[in-house]
Amino acid sequence: MGIIVHEATGVFHLCNDKISYIMKKMANGQMGQLYFGKRIRDREDFSHLLELGHRDMAPCVFPGDTTFSLEHLKQEYPSFGTGDMRYPAYEICRENGSRISSFCYRGFRACPGKPGLFGLPAVYVESEEEAATLEIELEDPLIGGKLTLLYTIFEKLPVIVRSARFENVQEAPWELARAMSISLDLPDCRYEMLDLAGASLRERYVDCHRLHQGVQSIHSMRGHSSHQFNPFLALKRENTDEHTGEVMGISLVYSGNFLAQAEVDTMGTVRVMAGIHPEGFVWPLRKGEQFQTPEAVLVYSDQGLNGMSQVYHKLYRTRLARGYWRDRERPILVNNWEATYMKFDEQAIYNIARKAKELGIELFVLDDGWFGKRDDDTSSLGDWTPDLKKLPGGIEGIARSVTKLGMQFGLWFEPEMVSRKSALFEAHPDWVLGSSEREICMGRHQYVLDFSKDEVVDYIGDRMEDILKGSPISYVKWDMNRSISDLFSVGKGKEHQGTVYHRQILGVYRLYDRLTRDFPQVLFESCASGGGRFDPGMLYYAPQGWLSDDTDGAERVKIQYGTSYVYPASSMGNHVSAVPNHQTFRSVPLATRAACAYFGAFGYELDLNLLTEKEQEQVREQVRFVKEHRRFLHTGTFYRLKSPFEENEAAWMVVSEDKKRALVAVFRSRQPVNRGYDRLRLAGLCPDLEYTISDRDYCCFGDELMEAGLILSDYASGVRWSEAVQGDDTARLIWVCA
Ligand code: DGJ
């Protein structure tokens, strides 16, 4: 178990009872990749898995030996210029312009536990027994470079965490032009690539296609992980479904530009890699300086896509998310954004908070529009002082009135931005990203602050701390509403410019780090125009994130379904909003909007005073439901059962750890007419336990529910249908309890 090293053969075998990861020092000194997958028994030598073969035309490392070509060998962290024709994992440019490198094995270190990564988010352990870490040290004397490949294997999870660290150990400087977090060569390419693609308001839709010869990739070059692609991909076998079959996932713990790609070569092997996007990235290293890549989390499952997701959920909920709120029940909130947008005064805010308290809601969040002269989105970002016209008592006044009601108070910030119309921009025009010689692109009338400059990060941190210290604030919504376009840091030299994308996100992490340290009990929720930065990096600082600006109940079913491939329910900020919905103009029933939102960090985003008496009664009941079940909903095992991307109906369920309780949710998009027969096979139950089913007058054993299935067809005997589940956009919640 852990790390097995066969020094005589140069074989390293990382294993637990679920997986094996095997690599080897090759004849040329570089590291070769031999196997990743289900646990196999150990042996002294696995060299035959390298598959050395006679290849006449291939560039060969040893003169006269046509069998050793990096064009064909499976490698750990492939380099440029030594015979490999595929994309390299890294590239170094020396002063003389050469990009050739060859890092060879020098030694290894193995230790229990897992060290943290300075300045970067990372998964962690709470005791040394939970994981073991291997560091493989390589050197290229000609470059004067040291390269450390880091591997952590978790004891109880099929997880390998990988990253790389570069160091310049000689006088002459060099530049890193590419530094992936992971590269993995697999011996065949019979996979489908599954990723989460989309756009603003339809984030993380499931996308799946067969691998074919060439490169297929997902990426962001927007300065944030983006609405368009999530930093995650999975390679699954064609017959792998949600419950059975082989799949491996790669998730990058990073919030900035990224690239993840699968490259199928002419010999039918695949090289998959993920890391910081090389476009616009050049990192100079002088003597003694190091560069640490973000880490990638590799998960293997032979129990289908649900098996993979459940591993990510567990790891990310308990060993990536941190702090006071990690294991605590999240407060039910009401946010005023869709209720008032920026047009509010103290009374309007107070009225929503008072009604919320009456209905049992626990936290009021004041969104955008409370500062400077922010009556619309054309001004004031960066001027973090309350608008006394709207809030005569300032933030302190409204926060105290709300907390006097017995509610917690939360506040919105957009720390990384500045409006063109703002005192901050007037005073510091050189604090924004973009060239002062040109007109800088605006997005939502705002510029991006240059967080590659420490003084800018410190200034914004001070302003936020002033507000947070002065008032009883227990929650912060951290928004970010535009991508980086004009990449240039004013006043900094040429050397700095290729580091700006990455430094920008390091600045964001540094500010998060400062605020979460100084205010450990404040609950942070990340947001980026909805889900434009919903990634593992953010989850390290903020245990929940706003999923999407699309609050339509039917759309959220898809967004939550896609997001669940990687992220736990506890990380998904889900709000019930008003109808007709502000994005789709659709009117989804209140019960459906809530049923979907239950599977996340629950809240409302509407003017509660505009609800009818009957609706208020429904809200009271929903709040009661969440208070009773939120711990179970966040910590239970989540199973996807039916995909909204494929059918008229979507379904998922959560099962308690002891398998005695499960909640099944079935969402129907359009009401069918004279519907045919339909059953839903449940998952994760105990075959031998007998379960009551909340909407029918008979019991079933777990094996029947998982194999024969739960009858969903209308008019089936023994099933109690409620009127609420007739019509379009309905939800059925069914309790299955032993
Ligand atoms: C985008 C967010 O996603 C919304 O929830 C809201 O906070 C607005 N920004 C405010 O400008």
**Tally of extended strands?**
38
* Percent helix: 10-25%
Number of helices: 13
Oligomer: single chain
CATH architecture of the largest domain: Distorted Sandwich
Distance between the termini: 36 Å
What count of structural domains? Answer: 3
Shape: globular
CATH topology of the largest domain: Beta-galactosidase, Chain A, domain 5
Alpha carbon gyration radius: 27 Å
Q: What is the typical, i.e. mean, pLDDT?
A: 97
Bound molecules: (2R,3S,4R,5S)-2-(hydroxymethyl)piperidine-3,4,5-triol
What fraction strand? 25-35%
Task: Name the poorly predicted regions.
Answer: none
If you had to describe this structure to a student in words, what would you say it looks like?
The strands form 7 sheets. Strands 6, 7, 8, 9, 11, 12, 14, 15, 19 and 20 form a 10-stranded antiparallel beta sheet that branches. The protein has an 8-stranded parallel barrel with strand order 21-22-23-26-27-28-29-30, surrounded by 5 helices. Strands 5, 10, 13, 16, 17 and 18 form a 6-stranded antiparallel beta sheet that branches. The protein folds into 3 domains: 2-319, alpha-galactosidase from lactobacil brevis (Beta-galactosidase, Chain A, domain 5, Distorted Sandwich), CATH 2.70.98; 333-417 and 456-482 and 512-632, Aldolase class I (TIM Barrel, Alpha-Beta Barrel), CATH 3.20.20.70; 642-737, Immunoglobulin-like. Helix 6 (454-470) runs parallel beside helix 8. By secondary structure, the chain is of the alpha+beta class. The chain has 13 helices and 38 strands. The structure holds (2R,3S,4R,5S)-2-(hydroxymethyl)piperidine-3,4,5-triol (DGJ). (2R,3S,4R,5S)-2-(hydroxymethyl)piperidine-3,4,5-triol binds at residues 337, 367-368, 412, 479, 481, 527, 529-530, 546, 549.
